[in-house]
Amino acid sequence: MKKAYRVKSEKDFQKVFNQGQSKANRQFVVYKLPKEGQNHFRVGISVGKKIGNAVTRNQVKRRIRHALMELDKEKQFNQDLDFIIIARKPVSQMDYWEIKKSLVHVLSLSHVILSELS
């Protein structure tokens, strides 16, 4: 995923948390904030220390990024959004396909992706 597609600064994260709307399932919480005039979506990923050690957290982040890249190839994302994905504890025990399925579910609940995949 290109760096231009990432929410990186603490200021931007806080803006999405404070002004955005959230939806959740058992594995993820998604905060979204509409940004008019933006050419493409931006995403931030947060994986806390409760998930595991640094190796586990980085592995979870890589899997989330990979799932988002695959979904982006299908042009499913609402382009004028900033959104933050927060991983919860069960994610550390999931494989890539389970993570992708759960992400599709929570992103469609929050209307970040335009239609749910089968």
Automatic annotation (TrEMBL):
This is Ribonuclease P protein component. Keywords: Endonuclease, Hydrolase, Nuclease, RNA-binding, tRNA processing. Consists of a catalytic RNA component (M1 or rnpB) and a protein subunit. Belongs to the RnpA family. RNaseP catalyzes the removal of the 5'-leader sequence from pre-tRNA to produce the mature 5'-terminus. It can also cleave other RNA substrates such as 4.5S RNA. The protein component plays an auxiliary but essential role in vivo by binding to the 5'-leader sequence and broadening the substrate specificity of the ribozyme. The gene is rnpA. It catalyses: Endonucleolytic cleavage of RNA, removing 5'-extranucleotides from tRNA precursor. GO terms for cellular component: ribonuclease P complex. It is an enzyme of class 3 (hydrolase). PROSITE patterns: RIBONUCLEASE_P. Pfam families: Ribonuclease_P. It comes from Atopostipes suicloacalis DSM 15692. One of its GO terms (biological process) is tRNA 5'-leader removal. Gene3D superfamilies: 3.30.230.10. One of its GO terms (molecular function) is ribonuclease P activity. Its EC number is 3.1.26.5.
